[in-house]
């Protein structure tokens, strides 16, 4: 039963909605419960009581999950004039202090009983209920009296103090389906962004949004679209490629079939007052707030974004609103505190300043007010004091440092378009807020940096594996570009330098939008390439952006009829799109390998965008690996070209035509990139009506075997044309091989002389020195060896070889092969002489070319694995006479 003196019911109000959730007994559940109650009540439109409900829920859930050590069940109930929140735990025997029994509440510094004391102070009604297994504390917050239909209201203001907007305020309405694609695009959206509904419906919103979060880190647009509510700033890329800053309000809904979608309302950022939800100013003078409200959450709001970009964006928006400014910005310091990098802005021209870097102390355009609070009443009198605000129309600005343990970690500033808006009082207020968030920002920055470094390491490992997996120059160039776009840059161009005397050559261009590649390539082809400076690191290259802007200006003048030439009726869209694509920061990194600049890697961003320092450092690491891979590919290509040129010189010249004899040769060299191996063949004229032929096999494969191949082929031709017979030719060749000493190789050789006969046959004189025997196929299908075996070459000094005579009748075939054919294996099986004989037996009546093809097909089909030995097939056939 309920304790006496404490109400246990909400009254007669009808419950119109409920939402429930259970939270595990872990510390993070307190923050999750706060977020659940805040989102629920805001979704119901009860923003007036959100803060009190969140404070009470936080204390009661803390009691349950931290002190009682049990799960917490949270139930939100909505009625027409109030909201009730029930928090139950599973520790009913826990003591509850009650005033009516003489007990006193715990002090504000004690954890025990604080939640009940806050309920007594803040809630309209509250109570405690017990069951055998649960204890439940509930509180009810009545809605303040307000006119019907009024959600919030502000005071009447003079006209001069009202927000500025265009005469026709346009609110773009778009609806995003469950897959993240645009399903609705109204007329105002077409006017603001330039796209018609047909151009965008069915495409992801992410294709057009310039989301203010670093890819791969923190909340992205896909996650934001799945939240029940979201409100904030980002950009939309218009048809000209430029980013239009917008303020957006997202609401997640579901249709009658339960299908979710997100309705997005968008206005230009300078008209944000149309959509922006008024922030409730927290009460800071109550005793309870002194002990229950975190100053960080007072400024940032609860729950705070859990990613760095979200935290920074929330910070600049709250800072601007706190000082009623027109713009705000936050810069983070580099590790050595020498530069500041722009990380979040609001009210300034889109994301053009994002990741821009300015010096802190020295040089022109230094950030002069980084380390101490500073107020500039009129920036026109202190030019360059805050480089970020140059040409933005801002006149007055207040900036304060972010410091952690005395070290500069960043700078926060708020600016206004009118002069004299800020004094030291505003600087103190802003510094107080900066001190509250500095530690959280630095902690989030270090966490992001650690995640980025881990991601960079994985990226470089994968890049190294991909680059090491190819020795093809063109493929290496393509990999370099594909690894940088879009991971590191929006577009990429690779210049290569053939040698020290050559100019850089534009070898590869890539853009994340394929439709922009041709325009980008044409633009870069018209401007001088960057200088091949070997100094490490990225350097800024302004030529592409300047050339693109000039081209866009000329095209626009022609389009308007202002140019000196005839008006141009087409091409302005392409030119403007190219100008937008290369209008941001462009950097050049040298490709240095073996102490020589072999090219340049150029990375670019779209209009007004900048690279962050960590990305440039990652790109520098990638460029070193890519340069070595590109140079290895060059060296390999040169080696292959030289090898192939030398190998082609070892192949016989054009095969002679022998009257009355069909000849077909098939040659396959084992090994990648080899055109000649240890096997060789030759067919050449010796004298009128006499032709020499040879087929041989040098022990081994590759270049060493090919060297003996060249020696044998040239020696055979020379000796045969000097008039030596077959045995003498081979004996002298044997001596030449032995003279090679340690470089000599065993050689099996079938050599013969062919004399076509007037009666249609052919007479052959052959010597078979250790080579597989030639096979003769007769017209009746019989197959027999056409020679006897004799000793191979390159082993003994004194050889006694003899010549044998073979006659080929019309229709006969002589098949000569190397042992790469007969020794074709699969496991323990081998084709062998018997298998080759069987194949040849079925070739009766076939031409020489058909016989060679059938033998090759039989060899290839004998085993699934590719051949590992060189292979040569020589077929000679005397055709049958044609009968009229």
UniProtKB/TrEMBL annotation:
The keyword Hydrolase applies. Residues 167-203 form the PAS domain. It comes from the Bacteria. The keyword Electron transport does not apply. PROSITE patterns: PAS (PS50112). Keywords: Hydrolase. PANTHER family: STAGE II SPORULATION PROTEIN E, STAGE II SPORULATION PROTEIN E-RELATED. This is SpoIIE family protein phosphatase. It comes from Streptomyces amakusaensis. The lineage of its organism: Bacteria, Bacillati, Actinomycetota, Actinomycetes, Kitasatosporales.
